[in-house]
Amino acid sequence: MTFLTLAQTLREKCGMAGSGPSTVVGQSGESLRVVNWINEAWLDIQNRHNWDFMREDFSFVTVSGTQAYTPSGSSGSGAALTDHKAWWPDTFRCYLTSLGAADIQYLPVQDYAWFRDVYQFSTLANGRPTCWAQRKKDRAILLGNTPDAVYTITGQYQKAGSKMALDDDSMPTGLPTELEYLIVFRAMQKYASYEAAPEVMNEARAEYKTLLTLAGAYLLPDIDAPEPLA
Predict the structure, then answer these.
(1) DSSP letters along 141-157, please?
(2) Taking all residues of the chain, what is their mean pLDDT, rounded to a whole number?
(3) What is the pTM of this model?
(4) In Å, what is the CA distance from 151 to each residue of 2, 15, 96, 138?
(5) How far apart are CA 146 and CA 85, in angstroms?
(6) Contact criterion met (CB below 8 Å) for 24 and 5
(7) From the CB of residue 210, how many other CB atoms can be counted at a distance below 10 Å?
């Protein structure tokens, strides 16, 4: 469903008087609340779990002599990600760029305190990175050893939640079609809370819980899978 269809479905499911909205753009009053509830519901759902559909690949090349690489690449090096939430540590790999993927090796994560003692409080020659740690204040990737050449670092990260663009044709990106009613049922709860409508709240909670369980079975990592590094 599009943003507009979701908003119209919410109005219908809640039994609200009138019709519409005819667009999600430039609304006011009740129609604006409907639009906002849909977008807030979509953001709630994205932030509820580390969903598989919000897991993406990344890749960047190192700079010889540079140890730290920020998610945004704001320091001039890094992955240049605008939607980064957390790293999936067990997915990191490294290869000498000039040799290509044939040179790829697993790049294990290390505890930051241990990493500082070994790689930042001692003098080590630059070389091939064999591990990494996250600097928590800016989620930067710290490589040990500090690269002595151009290497390619690849892996996966968890995307941060984001609202749909204020456009009738915007879509809840990545959410399977059969689960789009999650947004409607979550938005219904917001409407029910605002209007003090217990019958709507009860229906919305029950339907949301059922669909959320189904979503978890298909869209969450295995129970024994490691958590991402936030």
Answers:
(1) EEEESPBSS-EEEEEEE
(2) 94
(3) 0.90
(4) 42, 58, 4, 22
(5) 24
(6) no
(7) 11
